[in-house]
Amino acid sequence: MSRPGRRLSSALRPLALASLVANAGLIVTGAAVRLTGSGLGCPTWPKCTDESYTTTAEMGVHGMIEFGNRLLTFVLVGLAFATFFAALLSRPRRKSLIIMSIAVALGVPGQGVVGGITVLTNLNPWVVGLHFILSIALIAGCYALWRRVDEGDGKPVPLVPAPIRHLSWIAAVVSFAVIAVGVVVTGSGPHAGDQGAKRNGLDPATVSQFHADLVFLLIGLSVALWFALRAVGAPAHTVRAAAVLIAVEFSQGAIGFVQYFTHLPVLLVAAHMLGAAITWTATLAVLWSLRTRPERPQPTTTGPDHAHPQLAEPVTAS
Predict the structure, then answer these.
(1) How does pLDDT run across 250-277, given as a tens digit for each residue?
(2) pLDDT tens digits along 1-30
């Protein structure tokens, strides 16, 4: 392998981590677009205007913010394809990493297309919400790839009993539900991304209460999981992952309550959207801590020098 190829393959884990961070960053820049009313700063797609692919001076700061968010997609594409080539050049070549890197690489332009549809539908709140959920899915893919680099390809070995694993998956489902309902809350609120954009028509107070109820449920499940892990003597890193998740949930919940009762100031809303990505990542960390994945066992060879022990002794006539 050439020296550039060796360097690229050795950078697989950092590249996967960079993709994870960049996709979380896309949520932050998307929040900036929405919270500054720049959702239609570039009023068409894939061009920024009918005549130009880039923003123009006449479009002002809103055009710059929206166009900057679009440019980040190219960064994500570059990282995704660099990660794919790093997986392809790694030795030994691992099919699992190649498949996961391809999935991430295909997801990024797919996310860009959905972003374009949000513009073409004049920021339909349901399409905008789908745009956010796809970012959450990409974060999951990037996180999985990042963690799998240091794992083997053998069968996963659980580190905790099955009931605790089931509790963890229930908490993960509720964590995703919290994020999804939070998207619906945002779609009912004032931050539409543009003054003329429609809202989803739901009552903000009602969906916010449902969102808060799910948060309380998630925190309760996470605390129960932490106690259960300690009770069965789970590995220290597993207990620690659950503790980090609880801390993140309390911080995210505090931001959510403050932003609600202070009438949704933009900085707190942006912090809350970033917190959603961090909460989801912490949830994934708990799931990954519940098992280990060893190297795939090497197949045994058979032949004259590797005979079955019971058949290795010479047979003598009686």
Answers:
(1) 999 999 999 999 988 999 999 999 999 9
(2) 545 556 666 889 999 999 999 999 999 999
Phi first, then psi, for residue 143 (nearest 5°) are -65, -45
Closest CA to 92 of 298, 301, 293: 298
User: What is the model's pTM?
Assistant: 0.87
Closest among 140, 3, 20 to 76, alpha carbons compared: 20
Greatest extent of the chain over all pairs of C-alpha atoms, in Å: 104
Contact 30, 9 (CB under 8 A): no
* Phi, psi for 307 (deg, rounded to 5): -75, 160
How far apart are the C-alpha atoms of 182 and 5, rounded to whole Å?
43
Cα–Cα distance list, 229 to 2, 16, 69, 168, 170 (Å) = 47, 29, 41, 10, 15
**Residue written as token pair 């990282």:** 79
